[in-house]
Amino acid sequence: MVDEPKLHNQTNEEPWPSPAYSWYVVGVLTVAYTCSFIDRQILSLLVEPIRRDLQISDTQISLLAGIAFTIFYTLMGVPIAKLSDQKNRKIIIAIGIATWSLMTALCGTARNFWQLFIARIGVGVGEATLSPAAFSILADYFPVNKLARAFSVYSMGVYIGAGLAMIIGGLVVGWVANSGNVILPVIGEIRPWQTTFFIVGILGLPVLLLMMTVKEPVRRGLGENTAGKNASSTSELLAFIKINRRTLVCHFAAFSLTGIGIMGYLVWTPTVFIRTFGWDAPSIGMAYGTILLVFGTAGLYAGGTVADWLQTKGKTDAIIRSAFYSIIAAIPFAVLTPLMPTSTLAIVSLAITTFFFSFPQGLPAAALQVFTPNPLRAQMTAIYFLIGNLIAAGLGPTLFALVTDYIFHDPMMIRYSIAIVSSIVLPMGAIFAFLALKPYRESIRRAQETTNTSGA
After folding, report:
1. Which CATH code is given to the segment(s) 20-215+234-455?
2. Domain map of the chain by residue range?
3. What pTM does this model have?
4. Residue partners of 161: CB distance under 8 A and separation at least 6
5. Among 154, 176, 151, 179, which residue's Cα sits nearest to residue 35?
6. What is the pLDDT of residues 284-335, one digit of tens each?
7. How many CB atoms lie within 10 A of CB 184?
8. Is there a contact between 33 and 157 (Cβ–Cβ < 8 Å)?
9. At what angle do helices 343-358 and 281-291 cross, to 10 degrees?
10. % helix / strand / coil in the chain, to the nearest 5?
């Protein structure tokens, strides 16, 4: 039974928790996010052996990396988020950690495409619990002027997880490849790539224990008009969406289109270096993993810091404005990186691309929290993830693969697919981010007026 969270009325707010403990919670949630992304991303290092053993195409690989994971990750996200708006968010996240860890291990039992597809769906279901509940928790631990940085640190889990997936995954791939096939009780003989899934799945167990040390925070910003039990109802949610539809359309479009480029890079970069420059999986895993850890986390922290700085300078649209600048900066590097004539130049350009790709990663959810009422925060975050992930994580990897398989008809042309798709989706994302600035300011103004009225 998931316990009811404590609710507090806007007119009688408790003091904010201590900064030290609040940042401890950020740390735990970041570790959980890191773990989730390791489980999600490890597939990208295993493309070649999975293609060989299961006899599947790039397009089928992209379905495993995209649609298989994303479809239930997004569809389950909204009902789970509604539960998070009403129940104990810590327990919901803990259940999710157990689920995605188990399903990652089950990926290692797959004998054909469809078995692996179903196991990847299970990973998505487990991970659907995390971010909506995590963002809602953090919004109750940090005031608005510190929220962007907290969200950006949490979102570092994407790049820490992806980086560790590359580094640890590359080492594991090298180790298990040298060890050969393994015979397990009941399951039978498994190949090295299957052993990798088992090892990665086990990493979730200590994270589950760590999550249980987090305290469920008091829900804040619940004025008299929203403290009732219908405050998170579907009708309230639809009314909020209708009022803020211009902001939400531009926001979702900007970050979803940019996400196509980001997800394409995360999934296909190792394959580009393996096919184009002749690298092996452990080598590109170590190189790209290091880039993700260093430049990805640096970009994320910079994004939150710049947004908070602009906020102190009176820019109410600071969060979206920071994202807009970074998308513009990313475009030339994202297009040119896969076209570089040498692997050295490609690595240097990849590091710069990664920095600018990561810069806005913590900002979409932070932007939503600023003008969304507390009882709707998890649901709105889940709706963003529903739309954003269906487009970015679901369509993104497959869009690159379709260009390779059905336009070029040559797996070696994946580098040109990345350049072409990036040159289209990233400028479109920047345009929508610019168009979001004015309606976003209006949404914030309405939210402030509502809060002032409720607290009067």
Report:
1. 1.20.1250.20
2. 20-215+234-455
3. 0.73
4. 33, 34, 35, 36, 37, 38, 40, 41
5. 154
6. 888 999 999 999 989 988 998 899 899 888 888 999 999 999 999 999 999 9
7. 13
8. yes
9. 40
10. 80, 5, 20
